[in-house]
Structure formats: C-alpha cells, structure tokens
Specification:
Layout (H helix, E strand, L loop, with lengths): L3 H16 L2 E10 L10 E4 L5 E3 L5 E7 L1 E8 L6 E7 L3 E7 L7 E5 L21 H6 L4 E4 L7 E4 L7 E5 L2 E2 L20 E8 L12 E7 L8 E10 L4 E12 L2 E12 L2 E3 L3 E3 L4 E13 L3 E15 L7 E20 L2 E18 L14 E2 L2 E17 L3 E22 L7 E25 L2 E16 L2 H11 L6 E14 L5 E12 L3 H5 L3 E3 L4 E4 L7 E13 L3 E13 L2 E7 L2 E6 L2 E14 L4 E14 L13 E9 L3 E10 L18 E13 L2 E8 L21 E9 L1
Parallel strand pairs: 1-7, 11-14, 32-36
Antiparallel strand pairs: 1-4, 2-3, 2-5, 5-6, 8-13, 9-10, 11-12, 13-14, 15-16, 15-43, 16-17, 17-20, 18-19, 20-21, 21-22, 22-23, 23-25, 24-26, 25-26, 26-27, 27-28, 28-29, 29-30, 30-33, 31-32, 33-34, 34-37, 35-36, 37-38, 38-39, 39-40, 40-41, 41-42, 42-43
Length: about 725
C-alpha cells in the first residue's frame, strides 16, 4: 500500500500537468469573397480572458490549453464567426469571415457561386431569359412598360431622375426624351453577374438620390479558368423571338480575358387572349469585351460594351425607334491591402456615348389627335465621362470609405416637324440645347462596431453641379420662352444618413435608418423644350429655376435567418419637399415647377422556407401608399399591393419552378400629373424547368402566363398589356 501511494501521486501529478499543457494554434483570417487576409480581427476564447488580434496580413498565433475551445472572430465590416477546436496537439486553421455591415443595398446574384444561406440561392436567376425578367421578380422594384423591349425600372414607385441606374458604378444618361432607352437595356442577361439594389435615399455612395440606386454589375475575367466557353440558343413563341448568345473566358498567368455576345430578333408580341400588338418587334445586338492584368495585390481591368438596337416598335407611344446605339467603356484599377489600415483602393475612368433616332414614318399620323397630319422625326445624343475613386480604411472596430466622384455630361436632342401638306415648310425645334452638366462630389461612409452586437453606419455626400447651354438656336428658344437670358445654373447640395443595426442573436437583427437626401433636377427638367409626355398628353418645357427635391426618410427592418428559414420585413416613410411636377400653362402645355410636397409610406416582406435541400418556397409582398399634397392625388404609376410566390425543386441534373404573381386592383389614380385609369387585379402563373442532358449540355423550357391572362401592370404606359402565354425553349452548351 505504501508502495502504491507514490505511484498514484505521480499519475495524478502527470494528469494535472497534461491538463495544463498548452498547444499552439496558428492561423489566418481571410475574406470569404476575396480570399484576402483581414488585418486586426479580434479573436477571443469564449469563457476565458484569453485572446489576440490578427496581424496586418490576417495571421495570428494563440497558445491554448489542452481541451475543447470556441473562438469568436470579430471584425468591423464582417459577420462574427465561431470556430470550435479540440486542442490535443498544435495545429493550423483558416477562418473565413463573410463581409457584413449595415447594408442599405441588397445584393442579388445572377451568375456565380451560391451564397452561404439557402434563401439567397433563390436569387440565382441565370435560368431567366432577359435582364427584365430578373428585375420584375425583385420585391419593391417594378417595371414601366412602353413596349416588348427595354422596360424602365421604378424603385418603390419612383423612377427617372428620382433614382440612379448604373452599370458597373458608371453614370449613363439616356438620349431619348421619351425614355425609350433605359440604362438597363444595355446589359444582357449573359453579361449580368449581380445587382446591387439600394431602396430609398440611404445609400449615397454612387450618387444623390431620393428613390434608390440600381447598380448592374457585369461579369469579369476569371484567372482560375485557363479556358471556358458557352453558347446558348432559344425561341419564345409569344413574339416569335429567336436569340443566340455566347461567352468565353481565357486566362494565362497574370492575364485574363472575357468576351460575350447576344443577338435577338422578335416580331409582334401577343397579349393575353391572343391579342396581337402590331408594330412591337425589334432587332438587337450586344457584345462585351473585358481584359484584366493581375499583380500580387493589384488588378487592372479594361471593359467595353457595345449595344445596337434597330426597328423597335413602341405601340404605347407616338413613335418607334429606328436605331439606338450605346458604347460604354471603362478602365478600373483595384489595389487590395496597399498599406496598413487600408483595405483597398479602387479608381475607375469611364466614357460612354448614347445615340438615339426615332420617327413615326410607319404610323398613320392622319388619325391621331396630337399633331395630326405631321411626321416628327427626332434624334438624341448623350456623352458622359467620369472618374470614380474610393479608398477603404479599416481599423480594429471601424471602417471608413472616402469616395471622389466627378463626371461631365452633355445632351442634345432635336425634332423636325414635316407636314403632309407639300406647301407647308418643315419646322425645326431643339428639345435639348446641347446641355452641359459638370458634377463634382465627395462622399464619406463610416461604419463602427459600438458593441459586440451593435453597429452604427453614417454617410454624408456633397455635390456641386454646374449646368450650361451651348447650342445657340436652342438657347434662344428657351430664353424666348422665359423672356430672359442667363439660363446657366449651379447647385450645391449635401445629404446625410445614419443607421443602427442591433444583432440581438445569431439569427435575429433589427435596423433603424434615417436620411435627409436630396436629388437635383434632371437636365430635361431644367432645360427640356417642347417635348411630348404621353402619360398625360401634354407638351412639357423645363425650368432652369427648379429647386432640388429634399427627402426625409426613415425605415425599420427586421431580419430572422438560419440555414433553412429566412424572414425579412420593413416599413418605410419618405417625405419629399419641393416635389417636381408639371403645371398647366395653357392646354396642352405644361412647365416643370416645384409642387409643394409629397410622401410615400409602405412595407415590404419576404419569407423563405427550405423544407429539404432540394425543395424550397419563397414568398414576398409589398404595398405603397402615396400622395402629392398640392394636387391631392397619388404619385403617378404607384404599384398596388403585389404578392410573389415561388416553389422550386432541384436535383442533381434537373430543376423545376412554379412561380406566380398576384396584383390587387389600383383605384387610387393620378388625374392631373398623369391620365391614369383603373387597373384591374390579376394573377399570372409561370412554369420553368431545366435538365442537364450531358455534362456540357442543358435544356431549359417553360410556359409563362400559363392561363393566357389578359392583364395590365399599373406602371404600363397607356395600359399596354403584359405578354400572353409564352412557350419557350433554350439549349445551352458549355465547355
């Protein structure tokens, strides 16, 4: 017994020593998107006072006692991550942090890898045929239809100059005074990689806005693919549409390139009940080229988009587009982690040209009420160049983004009135007198982690805008209308927003946002001369003395998510002062003025259920109520209550989706600012499917508007109906 006591004592002492033994954990914290190291990440060992921080390259070392430990990794701008380890020996680990901040924008992935949360994969919309198809499915975003082509986006009922629509952060201005050439028409689905949608005026990163920003992000060359290519062909029955599109990627060493093309040709389309809408076809060609050069932490990318559309019929308008051409070019330099505390520096230089020509030579001008017995061919051009530079600073619990944004734009539009009477001489009108806009802006975007579960974001932006006229004939027209000279104008505006995000559990978040945002009058609202607005049948003239619209906004958002379930809901209020609208001078003429105030109040909600890894449901709904105080009527084209529901089933080689949209009637009408009529409620149901026939071949087919419902979106111009039953099929080959 006496002999056993020392042995037992030695064993207990050895166990105690082993229990106190420490092992080394060495690792690296990296960005889940860029795979770059993240500096100054706080790494805490739960239930202890131990911890450390990552170095400037994201590396860290911890000496941990033997046993099971949970590490909490926290950094401003990223979601908190937990890593559980059983330390019985020294080991290494790589921890990926997913970018997180108080995001005013929603990122909708089009092409690319699925995101971590299951509900986000619902936005992998590469199964759709056009960019417009994608936009129509996004909650809170509606599309203004003027034809079977180039729908104009509207964010929470606001559109045109009240929102920003960008392509890869670049400013682009349509050349058509009848809005036949929205910016979204220049990005085809095969080029579209993701959408950044910011609703409301809270995000001022890329421009002053009171309605929101839609940023279309296009595909870039991939350095990890030596060569890949794909080609796709398809047919749609509703308009006899045929299309062919393809893309390829090449890389070698530090170089990579990507190219794509799209060719489409469509005839007249059919609305529900087989109602044919004559003069609604189009032909369109789009191509894009990108070349990238990569160094250790730097990338230089040159990109070009060319887009040509011809013979586009606009049955809801007085005219058709004979030819629309866009050339969009940019050079971007990106530098990751150039210095300590600097996460990235990005600079882009861009230039784009838009040319638009329309006429009514294919119309019976003798039968119309506006300007009968007269043809009115029109042309429009815009030229825009700009420089956008941003630098991202990062600290232990805060980040700061500084943005410099400079651009110059010029716009010209004219019209010739040709009477059917051979004795009458043609008349010439300049609608936009070579308007020049020079804009200089600086924006600051600051994020701070106040506590482990409480974030704060604040943004400010200041713009100086100078506007002048350079066409003498057009300038004299406008000076004669206002009976004075000196129409040049300068504006200085500043906006600010703030938000608090409380993550009271891993699954639940609550955000409260406030903003005082301002938007400048568009160049057409300032200087347009005698252009026809089909929405109310009046001829408009701009006003160089317009004041900017000032918006006071607030929004509360709640989110609850886990691996198989997600709920997001918000309520918002937007009060607009100095609201810009038309005031009747003498029928049929209106002039733009500031019309007191207006407001929009509404709510949006979406729910996702992932019942199994293969089957999921998504439902979303939105409703908005608006009013223009001075006119005692709603803001025009305000969508009614809308509900979207989708059920998707996926397997390894095939997928099925049943998708439906329900819209309530809209009986609150704008009678003064637009000639609206009651829109009936409707329900449409679509079915889509796809099967991978071979590893390199996929067949997709579907039926849209299965029941051939005749329906009208409230935002459609002149009650132009939506498309009827459409059977489509596409075949895609990939290498």
């Amino acid at each position: 017994m006496k002999l056993l006591q020392p042995i037992i004592l030695i064993i207990m002492l050895n166990a105690a020593l082993q229990a106190q033994q420490r092992f080394t954990l060495s690792g690296k914290i990296i960005d889940a998107d860029t795979r770059e190291g993240i500096p100054y990440v706080n790494i805490l060992v739960e239930d202890t006072y131990e911890g450390t921080a990552s170095d400037s390259a994201g590396g860290f070392i911890l000496n941990l006692l033997q046993g099971r430990h949970t590490l909490k990794c926290m950094s401003m701008g990223y979601e908190m991550a937990r890593l559980t380890l059983d330390m019985r020996e020294s080991k290494t680990a790589v921890v990926m942090l997913k970018p997180h901040a108080i995001e005013f924008s929603e990122e909708i992935i089009i092409y690319g890898q699925p995101l971590q949360r299951a509900e986000e994969t619902y936005y992998l919309e590469n199964k759709l045929n056009t960019t417009d198809d994608v936009l129509e499915k996004i909650n809170g975003l509606s599309m203004i239809r003027r034809a079977n082509f180039a729908l104009e986006p509207s964010i929470r009922g606001l559109s045109a100059g009240q929102i920003n629509v960008l392509v890869d952060d670049m400013k682009i201005f349509g050349a058509c005074i009848d809005k036949m050439d929205p910016v979204t028409s220049y990005v085809e689905i095969d080029n579209l990689q993701k959408l950044d949608l910011a609703k409301g005026g809270f995000d001022m990163t890329y421009g002053q806005t009171i309605g929101g920003t839609l940023n279309l992000k296009t595909g870039r060359p991939e350095f990890n693919k030596p060569f890949s290519a794909g080609i796709e062909s398809g047919y749609e029955s509703v308009s006899d549409l045929r299309f062919l599109r393809g893309h390829s990627n090449w890389s070698k060493g530090q170089w990579a390139a990507r190219g794509s093309f799209s060719v489409k040709s469509a005839g007249d389309y059919y609305a529900g009940h087989r109602q044919r809408w004559s003069n609604s076809g189009f032909d369109k060609t789009n191509y894009k080229i990108d070349v990238s050069k990569k160094w250790a932490t730097q990338t230089l990318t040159m990109s070009y988009i060319g887009d040509v559309a011809e013979d586009i019929g606009y049955p809801a308008l007085l005219m058709d587009t004979r030819r629309a051409e866009a050339n969009i070019a940019g050079i971007e330099h990106a530098w990751n982690n150039p210095r300590a505390n600097i996460r990235s520096v990005k600079t882009k230089i861009y230039y784009n040209t838009i040319d638009h020509r329309m006429d009514d030579y294919d119309r019976d001008v003798t039968a119309r009420t506006f300007m009968p017995n007269m043809y009115m061919p029109m042309t429009g051009t815009t030229r825009t160049m700009g420089v956008l530079s941003e630098i991202n600073f990062t600290g232990e619990s805060q980040t700061l983004k500084i943005i410099g944004d400079v651009y110059a734009m010029k716009a010209f539009a004219d019209m010739t009135m040709e009477s059917l009477d051979p004795a009458a001489s043609p008349m010439y009108v300049v609608n936009l007198a070579d308007v020049r806009v020079q804009n200089y802006a600086i924006a600051l975007d600051y994020h701070r982690r106040l506590k482990t579960d409480l974030f704060w974001r604040s943004s400010v932006r200041a713009d100086f805008s100078r506007r002048t006229l350079h066409d003498r004939f057009g300038r004299r027209e406008l000076e004669g209308y206002w009976n004075r000279s000196g129409l040049n104008r300068s504006y200085f505006i500043a906006s600010a927003s703030t938000a608090f995000d409380y993550q009271f559990s891993v699954q639940h978040r609550l955000r409260w946002s406030l903003a005082r945002s301002i938007r400048l009058p568009s160049h057409q609202e300032n200087y347009g001369f005698y252009f026809y607005n089909v929405s109310d049948g009046f001829v408009y003239t701009g006003n160089p003395e317009l004041k900017p619209e000032i918006s006071y906004q607030t929004e509360v958002t709640f989110e609850s998510t886990n691996d198989r379930y997600a709920l997001k809901a918000n309520v918002f209020y937007n009060r607009i002062h100095n609201y810009i609208g038309g005031r009747i001078e003498e029928a049929p003429f209106k002039t733009y003025y500031n019309l007191s105030s207006a407001y929009i109040v509404g709510s949006e909600a979406s729910v996702y259920w992932g019942f199994t890894p293969s089957f999921g449901l998504m439902t979303s709904a939105n409703y908005k109520y608006s009013q223009i105080d001075a006119l005692d009527e709603p803001i025009p084209y305000m969508p009614p209550l809308e509900v979207i529901a989708s059920a998707r089933w996926t397997k390894k080689n095939y997928w099925l989706e049943l998708y439906g949209k329900i819209a309530a009637p809209q009986k609150r009408l704008a009678k003064i600012s637009a000639a609206e009529t009651v829109t009936d409620g409707f329900t449409i149901v679509n079915f889509r499917s796809g099967v991978k026939v071979r590893s390199f071949m996929e067949l997709q087919c579907g039926v849209e508007n299965i029941f051939d419902t005749l329906y009208h979106e409230h935002s459609s111009i002149n009650r132009l109906p939506g498309r009827g039953r459409n059977i489509y099929v596409t075949l895609a080959l990939k290498y």
